[in-house]
Amino acid sequence: MAGSTLTIKDLHVAIDGKEILKGVNLEVKGGEFHAIMGPNGTGKSTLSSAIMGHPKYEVTQGSIFLDGKDVLEMEVDERAQAGLFLAMQYPSEISGVTNADFLRSAINARREEGDEIPLMQFIKKMDKTMEFLEMDINMAQRYLNEGFSGGEKKRNEILQLMMIEPKIAILDEIDSGLDIDALKVVSKGINSMRNSDFGCLIITHYQRLLNYITPDYVHVMMNGRVVKSGGPELATRLEAEGYDWIKQELGIEDEEAVEVE
Amino acid sequence: MTLQTQYPFDKGFVESYAVSNGEPEWFKNLRLNALEKFEVLPMPNPDKTKIEKWDLISFKQHTAEDQSIAAIDALPEKVKALIDVEAGLKNLYIQQNQTPSFLSVTEDLKQQGVIFTDILTAVKEHGELVQKYFMTDGVKVDEHRLTAFHAALVNGGAFLYIPKNVEVKEPIQSIFIHSNADAPLINHVLIVADDNSSVTYVENYISLQDEAEGIANIITEVLALTNARVTFGAVDTLAHGVTTYVNRRGYAGRDARIEWALGLMNDGNTISENVTNLVGDGSVGDTKSVVVGRGDQKQNFTTKVVHFGKNSEGFILKHGVMKDSASSVFNGIGKIEHGATKANAQQESRVLMLSEKARGDANPILLIDEDDVMAGHAASVGRVDPIQLYYLMSRGIPKVEAERLVIHGFLAPVVNQLPIEGVKKQLSEVIERKVK
């Protein structure tokens, strides 16, 4: 069997004591591209943060397994080393640490001591990948995300994805704030990763991204749950008709509206 | 009734020391006048640090003699690592305790009139120049008890003079080695960059002992005259047993520029003062300093840029890392005098705390006596940002390594600016060792 399997069962997640995810079930396998769509504030980003182990998110119930290993028992770096990757919506800026040094540390963290990636090999790979993503070559020596524009940060996340070559990647709103040219480049990067060993979970609330990356599965999240799953045609219908028809079909009331009453 | 403390030096002692060095009359008199002032002046009063109980004055013997160095190979590894030996010895002064033990100046610089020698030789051989600039426009003898102490008892240091219109491309380096803690390091470095000249100078203070108690009293004066440019780097690594007063003062004439990159890595209690007086119109002072405090050491770092000149620009950057039960005060002062229109005073002080018991205090101060100016400051004291760590760890980097990256990044502004590879590497290694 090729690739890894990420299995999420009945996942409940709270932030500052408030429950955001209320039982998410999802399985992503190597070779599959999944898209998660949904209105703002329905827990899409919470799901990605919980999978990676963001310190502010507390898993209160349920499980996450990667190839049978309990992800929730792992530290953040162990999750990454096990094969998970999260392209973040708001990447941190780290002053004084160059993009190149950071990436080399990330790659070497996956290798045994004494078996570090040869410098020339690293530089070649980085140059090639940056060229592919149409990035200014000087960005290798700039401090990690410091002073990067929104678009540059997103490209830099994809650069890391391509350099690190994880088994399962989660892309959290990788398309937000991108102009059409940048969106094409970012999509090109993601598509270049497609093979039977690589699984991807794409979180977005714009159907636009899915014009460039065709998902195998589309899931709709509302009120902290996956409420509907289907193929790429589901995304097309959402684009045309919005989310109201799903709410009506499933009898979902807007949570905020409930609170107001 | 006052209590008279006995010091191991008096008028006769100072006089005979001056005579034994063959110092000119004016310098001997400067020492003797300073000694009189020493007896009456108060100690400095570093803001928010109590130094009443610090011993900054006692010593067992005034000087310690050492051998001169025949070959660089004979130096301890720790010292050799600071020198770019492969690039060939160019302009380098090494002082062991109070002995000027090695000096190299390229023919090229000599021919252009550049003077680089130890301070006590300079007093004799370049008296006119030294007399004009020694503790006149930079630090004054009578500022407080420690400046007077310094002038009376100065026993080492270096003098560097760059004549008008001379641009020195290669960095000039001094290494001051303190291996005998019984003898105090009372070091004076005087750098004069005459009109339209430029120079890069780097100094290292290094201890070869650890716990032995001693004192260091260091004054560095950097005078950048009209349109001159001085790039100054320093890495201080004096030992735990050494109590240090270090004063680095800049004077910038019209359109002159002084850039400081200071790695303040002493392990003992330290008072560090770095003041840049922007006297001339259009002058620029840029001060970057990084600090790591560890163990039980107490330190006070005052960085000040004073604007007298119109359109003068001052930048202060201070980054400190505090661990164990170290405690430090960071005073950043931007002062704009009346008449310094269009001056720009900016500063940033940040302290990273690595332990519960460490203390760090960042005090940004702006003193402005002119309306038409720009000024700004940023200050913060905090821990390593957990979100930054999360981001790095999400790429597979273990927590310890992620913290290391953030801390090194935080201290990078000075490391990156040091012009000598060996010194850059040394500072990185010192940081590595200290934050571990």
TrEMBL record, chain A:
<dbReference type="InterPro" id="IPR010230">
    <property type="entry name" value="FeS-cluster_ATPase_SufC"/>
</dbReference>
<dbReference type="InterPro" id="IPR027417">
    <property type="entry name" value="P-loop_NTPase"/>
</dbReference>
<comment type="similarity">
    <text>Belongs to the ABC transporter superfamily. Ycf16 family.</text>
</comment>
<keyword id="KW-0067">ATP-binding</keyword>
<feature type="domain" description="ABC transporter">
    <location>
        <begin position="6"/>
        <end position="248"/>
    </location>
</feature>
<dbReference type="GO" id="GO:0016887">
    <property type="term" value="F:ATP hydrolysis activity"/>
</dbReference>
<dbReference type="GO" id="GO:0005524">
    <property type="term" value="F:ATP binding"/>
</dbReference>
<protein>
    <submittedName>
        <fullName>Fe-S cluster assembly ATPase SufC</fullName>
    </submittedName>
</protein>
<dbReference type="InterPro" id="IPR017871">
    <property type="entry name" value="ABC_transporter-like_CS"/>
</dbReference>
<dbReference type="Pfam" id="PF00005">
    <property type="entry name" value="ABC_tran"/>
</dbReference>
<dbReference type="InterPro" id="IPR003593">
    <property type="entry name" value="AAA+_ATPase"/>
</dbReference>
<keyword id="KW-0547">Nucleotide-binding</keyword>
<dbReference type="InterPro" id="IPR003439">
    <property type="entry name" value="ABC_transporter-like_ATP-bd"/>
</dbReference>
From TrEMBL, chain B:
<dbReference type="InterPro" id="IPR037284">
    <property type="entry name" value="SUF_FeS_clus_asmbl_SufBD_sf"/>
</dbReference>
<dbReference type="InterPro" id="IPR055346">
    <property type="entry name" value="Fe-S_cluster_assembly_SufBD"/>
</dbReference>
<dbReference type="InterPro" id="IPR045595">
    <property type="entry name" value="SufBD_N"/>
</dbReference>
<feature type="domain" description="SUF system FeS cluster assembly SufBD N-terminal">
    <location>
        <begin position="20"/>
        <end position="173"/>
    </location>
</feature>
<dbReference type="Pfam" id="PF19295">
    <property type="entry name" value="SufBD_N"/>
</dbReference>
<dbReference type="GO" id="GO:0016226">
    <property type="term" value="P:iron-sulfur cluster assembly"/>
</dbReference>
<feature type="domain" description="SUF system FeS cluster assembly SufBD core">
    <location>
        <begin position="177"/>
        <end position="410"/>
    </location>
</feature>
<dbReference type="Pfam" id="PF01458">
    <property type="entry name" value="SUFBD_core"/>
</dbReference>
<comment type="similarity">
    <text>Belongs to the iron-sulfur cluster assembly SufBD family.</text>
</comment>
<protein>
    <submittedName>
        <fullName>Fe-S cluster assembly protein SufD</fullName>
    </submittedName>
</protein>
<dbReference type="InterPro" id="IPR011542">
    <property type="entry name" value="SUF_FeS_clus_asmbl_SufD"/>
</dbReference>
<dbReference type="InterPro" id="IPR000825">
    <property type="entry name" value="SUF_FeS_clus_asmbl_SufBD_core"/>
</dbReference>
